Amino acid sequence: MTTNKFSHIDKDGKANMVDIGHKTQQIREAKASGKIILSAKTIELIRDNNMKKGDVLTLAEIAGIQAAKQTSNLIPLCHTLMITKAEVKCQLIDSGVQVNTRVKCIGQTGVEMEALTAASVALLTIYDMCKAVDKNMIMESIKLDEKTKLDI
């Protein structure tokens, strides 16, 4: 047995959900972002709302919000959180779509995984809705932009 420096691994090297019971409740917020590179034709179809599957940006935003709420079901060692706000904004840019997310909760652990999951699923939704017309899409730059916590 070795001394363990990793919080998600127990003394025997097995997966371990961190005990956050001793932590105080705080207002926690995280922001994440990412983008998807699209062809000019695909951008035009989205802009004109002519994609066969529907309103790409609105559906991607809804999918991202749903994903934030389901993060603990997707990522094995994430805690279930009471999310107080999940916001996903998808915006057309010259090269494709920029996705920005913001997730808040009052809890004992952060919401960065929820913000990153929201961004990732929003991008995957755009990919799914556009795959019939664009075979060269690239999702990139998915990242945590900010993480904050404030005492209540």
TrEMBL record:
SUPFAM superfamilies: Molybdenum cofactor biosynthesis protein C, MoaC (SSF55040). GO terms for biological process: Mo-molybdopterin cofactor biosynthetic process. Keywords: Lyase, Molybdenum cofactor biosynthesis. CDD domains: MoaC_PE. Residues 17-149 form the Molybdopterin cofactor biosynthesis C (MoaC) domain. It is an enzyme of class 4 (lyase). Transmembrane segments: none annotated. Its EC number is 4.6.1.17. InterPro entries: MoaC (IPR023045), MoaC_bact/euk (IPR047594), MoaC_sf (IPR036522), MoCo_biosynth_MoaA/MoaC (IPR050105), Mopterin_CF_biosynth-C_dom (IPR002820). It catalyses: (8S)-3',8-cyclo-7,8-dihydroguanosine 5'-triphosphate = cyclic pyranopterin phosphate + diphosphate. The keyword Lyase applies. This is cyclic pyranopterin monophosphate synthase. The lineage of its organism: Bacteria, Pseudomonadati, Bacteroidota, Bacteroidia, Marinilabiliales. The gene is moaC.
